[in-house]
Amino acid sequence: MAKLRILVVEDEVIIAEDLKNKLQSLDYEVCALAYNYEDALLQLKKTKPDLALIDIQLSDLKDGIDLACIIKEEHRIPFLYVTSNADSHTIDRAKNTQPNGYIVKPFNKRELYAAIEIAINKKSNTSQQKQKEREDSPLFIKESHRYTQIDKEAIKWLKAEANYTKIQTQQSQHLVRGKLKAILEQLPTNFIRIHKSYAVNLRQVKAAQHAYVQIDEEK
């Protein structure tokens, strides 16, 4: 099983190195150390970590809470605050970002390990719950002035057409307003995007080659 890859965001070099050593001794992989807000943004894109540990007070105009907002909006990975600031104002600001944990310095390895494992387990449970909801919830599309329910498993493929998406089912074809990405977010994981313009239901795929997939007699 691959090691959990962690980004450490801490402006004090000595503290960052100590945290790195603690994490490595717990068998986690530290994919990068970032010492300020801008460096953290760069490392998030470059290393694509599984989790981030963020110090709130950074030697920059923007702090760890500002960084957490970007993580929630663009990267969607779990993050924990690691900080010596436990005053009510800081905690209130931090709570608004819905972190996966909050570790107050000083802390030991056992506390660090527990916080990380709880955060990862929470993310896993949340992902499973969301997947179940996507599988169980009906898909309604608006056509003319009414909403029609579509059997998700009857969908064969979807095609992006500007701000619309074409949905091909076993019996019919529908053109609905909405980008392909937004439609896919309502479908279970057996629907995958194979091209910027196409997504398919894997359960409907008959064959695949490097240039196309085949569903029934369609390529």
What this model shows, in words?
It is a single chain. This protein has about 220 residues and is of the alpha/beta class. About 35% of the residues lie in helices and about 30% in strands. β13 (about 205-210) and β14 (about 215) form a beta hairpin. The chain is elongated. The mean pLDDT is about 85.
| Largest sheet properties | 5 strands, parallel
One letter per element, helices H and strands E, the order comes to: EHEHEHEHEHEEEEEHEEEE
Q: Mean pLDDT, as a whole number?
A: 87
Ranges where pLDDT stays below 50 over 5 or more residues in a row are none
Helix content: 25-40%
The class by helix and strand makeup works out as alpha/beta
Please count the beta strands (DSSP E, at least 2 residues each): 14
Strand order of the largest sheet: 2-1-3-4-5
